């Protein structure tokens, strides 16, 4: 009995370690999240809803947005509009602002 309990506890500990590693890697913004949908965020800028967001112009992407926290060329990076999550460098949302 003692051994079974010990194994169980070790399994739980290993599971939580794996979970916290995944959390640290940061989740990617889901286009269907309420905030993402409200801002018209898409992981692929070319799929931006130009009917709803006519301000989108080809060439705009998170990677060239003033709010993008990743380095130039990063595939994913943080954005203050989506705290704790990452946006695609090739993504876009209606809050896009040209990097100075
Ligand atoms: Fe991308 Fe900029 Fe919108 Fe953030 S604010 S999701 S970096 S376009």
Index terms:
alpha+beta, single chain, High-Potential Iron-Sulfur Protein, Chain A, 3 strands, globular, 9% strand, 100 residues
Give a written overview of the molecule.
This protein is of the alpha+beta class. It has one domain (5-88): High-Potential Iron-Sulfur Protein, Chain A. The chain has 2 helices and 3 strands; from the N terminus they run αβαββ. It has a 3-stranded mixed beta sheet. It starts with a helix and ends in a 12-residue tail after the last strand. Iron/sulfur cluster binds at residues 41, 62, 65, 67-68, 79, 81, 87, 91-93, 95-96.
Secondary structure elements and pairings:
Layout: H1 2-24, E1 27-28, H2 34-39, E2 76-78, E3 85-88
Parallel strand pairs: 1-3
Antiparallel strand pairs: 2-3
Iron/sulfur cluster (SF4) binds at residues 41, 62, 65, 67-68, 79, 81, 87, 91-93, 95-96.
């Amino acid at each position: 009995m003692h051994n079974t309990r010990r194994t169980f506890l070790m399994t739980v500990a290993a599971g939580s370690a794996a979970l916290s590693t995944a959390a640290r890697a940061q989740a990617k913004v889901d286009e269907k999240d309420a905030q993402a949908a409200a801002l018209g965020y898409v992981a692929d800028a070319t799929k931006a809803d130009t009917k709803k967001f006519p301000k989108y112009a080809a060439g705009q992407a998170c990677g060239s947005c003033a709010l993008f926290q990743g380095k130039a060329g990063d595939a994913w990076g943080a954005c203050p509009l989506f705290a704790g999550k990452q946006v695609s460098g090739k993504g876009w949302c209606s809050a896009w602002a040209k990097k100075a």
